[in-house]
């Protein structure tokens, strides 16, 4: 008998789970549900548009979706078109791989002013995410503040700093490329509430801001520690040492003729976002790191900016009424309840790179294989019948391939593709 699995979400965690289940079950059928016609979640909407090598990870997942015993239910939103309960009823197991696509809040005054954007929205805007096509961020002030010193904050600053020529190989959304080119900001500010040794960014990503055509990076050497303490475990210490070396190089650079400055400031915690109708500045408080924690000193300073982007992490909103543990779905090694499992950022939080999800999803697949056997449920055919009654427009994987070809065909100006920024435009390729 065939074991039937539904995976909710076609990002890396879901696709690694599909690959693992295919290896563990001799006879199984996997259906991958995705809210948008386009597959691959974070790879499409989260990875920076100039990080094409990372985007190429999608190739292996593309091959999985082409397999005969793997189905793609694109443009089907679980929780809207079909409920989680219905999936659990019709499949032997359901694996939630919905990621963490909701911004954490700073919880400071002024956070709701026009001109404050969470990284989900801002990154989604330049990555053609349909929810953020109309974001039109305010980029007309003299500067943009980015809160956080992780890789997402670096991505945002780098994309805002690069020239059109530096982005030519990228698939940045045309609407974002035009807005960034037309913008007149001269100051990008990245604020970390702790120090260089506590920063979340990694050497490869940090190294990329050393040679930007129109942007000089300012690092205050007085904020750089002399070394990385032994309290970090060996691998992490190595990463931090590389970061520190790059930060020292950046601090020694002197490129005063470039039109944009990127100020990388440590020990500065956001206290208030200033402005009347919109963002006009940001107030920060100096911190000290005590036992690894940022402790406020009471000393504040203001920086004039026209927009603020928070890159301070994400939380999960599940497609059903589930117990949560902080920002994640409550689970035990991926087991949620009944025949429901969870993988990826929805399981462990927004940490790690795309490959980190490989072993994580395989571990959950192992847990599933110990518990789940085929029971003769209706699987995708039963759900397809429900969706037909509800007039849902399912996009199959061969159909998505046609849309993907159309995105390549409509690219201009040397870009590899121009993604459709709305679901309507994607469907128009198929339905006219
Ligand atoms: P991250 O590395 O955890 O960075 C979040 C930053 O926000 C930290 O500096 C954190 O400071 C700060 N923060 C959190 N709450 C704050 C608050 N209330 N006030 C001020 N600052 C606050 O996460 P991320 O940048 O969102 O990235 C998520 C994951 O994706 C990471 O594992 C990252 O490496 C990965 N990623 C990888 C790539 C790549 O490989 N190229 C690209 C993008 C993302 P504290 O540390 O003090 O809390």
Task: Give structural notes.
With 432 residues, the chain is of the alpha/beta class. It folds into 2 domains: 3-101 and 315-431, Rossmann fold; 116-310, FAD/NAD(P)-binding domain (3-Layer(bba) Sandwich), CATH 3.50.50.60. The protein contains 15 helices and 19 strands. The strands form 5 sheets. It has a 6-stranded mixed sheet, sandwiched between helices. Strand 1, helix 1 (12-24) and strand 2 form a beta-alpha-beta unit. Helix 1 (12-24) packs across helix 12 (357-371) and helix 14 crosses helix 15. It starts with a strand and ends with a helix.
Short description:
The model has no long low-confidence stretch (mean pLDDT 97).
List the helices and strands and how they pair.
Elements (H helix, E strand, L loop, with lengths): L2 E6 L3 H13 L3 E7 L6 H5 L6 H4 L2 H8 L4 E5 L9 H7 L2 E4 L5 E2 L12 E3 H8 L16 E5 L3 H11 L12 H9 L4 E5 L11 H5 L7 E5 L14 H19 L7 E6 L2 E8 L3 E12 L2 E12 L2 E4 L3 E2 L8 E2 L2 E2 L5 E3 L2 E3 L2 H4 L8 H15 L7 H11 L7 H13 L13 H9 L1
Parallel strand pairs: 1-2, 1-4, 2-3, 4-19, 6-14, 7-8, 7-14, 8-10, 9-10
Antiparallel strand pairs: 5-15, 11-12, 12-13, 16-17, 18-19
Bound molecules: NADP nicotinamide-adenine-dinucleotide phosphate (NAP).
Question: In the CATH hierarchy, what is the superfamily of the largest domain?
Answer: NAD(P)-binding Rossmann-like Domain
Report how far the terminal alpha carbons are from each other: 40 Å
- Low-confidence stretches at least 5 residues in length (pLDDT < 50)? none
Helix content: 25-40%
The level-1 CATH class of the largest domain: Alpha Beta
Ligands bound here? NADP nicotinamide-adenine-dinucleotide phosphate
Secondary structure: number of strands: 19
Question: What is the tally of helical segments?
Answer: 15
Strands of the largest sheet, in order across it?
3-2-1-4-19-18
- Largest sheet entry: 6 strands, mixed
Strand content: 15-25%
Number of separate structural domains: 2
* Inertia-based shape: globular
Q: Remind me, CATH topology of the largest domain?
A: Rossmann fold
Radius of gyration: 23 Å
CATH architecture descriptor text of the largest domain? 3-Layer(aba) Sandwich
């Amino acid at each position: 008998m065939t074991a039937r699995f539904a995976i909710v979400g076609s990002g890396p965690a879901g696709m690694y789970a599909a690959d693992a289940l295919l290896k563990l079950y001799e006879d199984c059928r996997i259906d991958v549900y995705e809210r948008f016609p386009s597959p691959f979640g974070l790879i499409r909407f989260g990875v920076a548009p100039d990080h094409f090598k990372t985007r190429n990870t999608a190739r292996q997942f593309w091959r999985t979706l082409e397999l005969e015993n793997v189905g793609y239910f694109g443009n089907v939103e679980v929780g809207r078109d079909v409920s989680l309960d219905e999936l659990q009823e019709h499949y032997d197991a359901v694996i939630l791989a919905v990621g963490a696509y909701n911004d954490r809040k700073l919880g400071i005054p002024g956070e709701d002013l026009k001109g404050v954007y969470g990284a989900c929205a801002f990154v989604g805007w330049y990555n053609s995410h349909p929810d953020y096509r109309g974001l039109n961020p305010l980029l007309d002030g003299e500067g943009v503040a980015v809160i956080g010193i992780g890789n997402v904050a670096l991505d945002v600053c780098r994309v805002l700093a690069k020239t059109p020529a530096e982005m030519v190989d990228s698939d940045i959304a045309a609407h974002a490329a035009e807005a960034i080119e037309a913008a007149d900001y001269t100051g990008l500010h990245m604020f970390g509430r702790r120090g260089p040794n506590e920063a979340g960014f990694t050497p490869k990503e940090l190294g990329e801001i050393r040679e930007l055509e129109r942007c000089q990076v300012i690092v205050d050497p007085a904020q750089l520690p002399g070394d990385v303490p032994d309290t970090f475990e060996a691998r992490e210490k190595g990463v931090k040492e590389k970061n520190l070396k790059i930060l020292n190089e950046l601090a020694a650079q002197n490129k005063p003729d470039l039109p944009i400055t990127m100020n990388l400031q440590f020990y500065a915690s956001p206290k208030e976002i200033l402005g009347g109708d919109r963002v006009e500045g940001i107030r920060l408080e100096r911190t000290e790191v005590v036992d690894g924690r940022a402790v406020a000193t009471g000393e504040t300073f203001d920086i004039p900016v026209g927009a603020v982007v928070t890159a301070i992490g994400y939380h999960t909103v599940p497609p059903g009424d589930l117990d949560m543990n902080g920002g994640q779905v409550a689970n035990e090694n991926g087991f949620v309840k009944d025949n429901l499992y969870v993988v990826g950022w929805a399981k462990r939080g927004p940490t790690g790179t795309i490959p980190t999800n490989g072993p994580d999803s395989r571990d959950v697949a192992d847990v599933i294989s110990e518990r789940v056997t085929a029971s003769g449920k209706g699987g995708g055919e039963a759900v397809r019948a429900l969706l037909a009654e509800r007039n849902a427009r399912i996009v199959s994987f061969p159909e998505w391939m046609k849309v993907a070809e159309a995105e390549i065909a409509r690219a201009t100006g040397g870009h590899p593709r121009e993604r459709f920024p709305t679901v309507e435009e994607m469907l128009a390729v198929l339905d006219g």
